Amino acid sequence: QPLHTLRSAEKELLPGFHQFEWQPALKNVSSSWDVGIIDGLSGWTSSVDDVPAETIGRRFRYDVALVSALKDLEEDIMDGLRERGLDDSACTSGFTVVIKESCDGMGDVSEKHGSGPAVPEKAVRFSFTIMSIYIRLDEEEDAVTIFREPKPNSELSCRPLCLMFVDESDHETLTGILGPVVAERKAMLESRLILTIGGMQRSFRFFFRGTGYDEKMVRELEGLEASGSTYVCTLCDSTRAEASENMVLHSITRSHSENLERYEIWRTNPYSESVDELRDRVKGVSAKPFMETQPTLD
């Protein structure tokens, strides 16, 4: 057989290697197949051991990590289809996967003794959990849930995607490292994953919910002032005084795109206002938001 055929066959025997494709192909994402772990800022390396000393982030490519997670759940997916009385040969498309994203600081990780490389004191971890998988066979029919994560808040169901040496309040560095993750996620929303599960090719769509962020991280991702701000809510424009008078009637008024517009006003100050007037106009948006967070209970 020609060499490239043998290479492909060899690759499939590697642990963690899965053949998959996206239709249409993902925009702004490397087409390299055998991607191992990525140096957060400076491109691709093939193995964990090639870390240059100044690396401050390591991560998996998002779609490769999702494929690996789905293959880990292969038996659960097939069991789910059987339990619902579905003929698995008829279920080749219409799968939807709901992903919970989480990102949080890991606190002080500095090396107190020993001769390791000098690293910043803080680390941040970005991870995801497959919350549920459901299938809709026909447009009219209700979706049938074939997998639901039994322990959605457990450390065991939470898969690390990116580890960074960075303080979670360092907005610029976080943006630099997680920006490509956001670009990959955005590309996946507009495409379908074709992956072999149970011996047949099936197509999956993904929904992402940022419900694993605490308030500090939501403020960071959305470019808001920190928690000591007068504008206390991450979902609306209430000030502390307004919120203390009215604990019930709140509506969700903030959106990612509106925060972007307000950042532009903050940056350009088109009305030549004083700092206080400008701050009152943008309601606590002080940096460029870079990750869309779904409005959930704050």
From TrEMBL:
Domain annotation V(D)J recombination-activating protein 1 pre-RNase H: ranges: 21-93
Every copy of the V(D)J recombination-activating protein 1 RNase H domain together lies at 97-229
GO CC entries? DNA recombinase complex; endodeoxyribonuclease complex; nucleus
**Gene giving rise to this polypeptide:** RAG1
One Pfam family named in its UniProt record: RAG1_RNase_H
Domain V(D)J recombination-activating protein 1 ZnC2: start-end pairs = 231-293
Which molecular-function annotations from GO does this UniProt entry contain?
A: double-stranded DNA endonuclease activity; histone binding; protein homodimerization activity; sequence-specific DNA binding; ubiquitin protein ligase activity; zinc ion binding
Q: Name one GO biological process term.
A: T cell differentiation in thymus
Q: Which InterPro entries match?
A: RAG1 (IPR024627), RAG1_pre-RNase_H (IPR058553), RAG1_RNase_H (IPR058554), RAG1_ZnC2 (IPR058555)
What name is this protein filed under? RAG-1
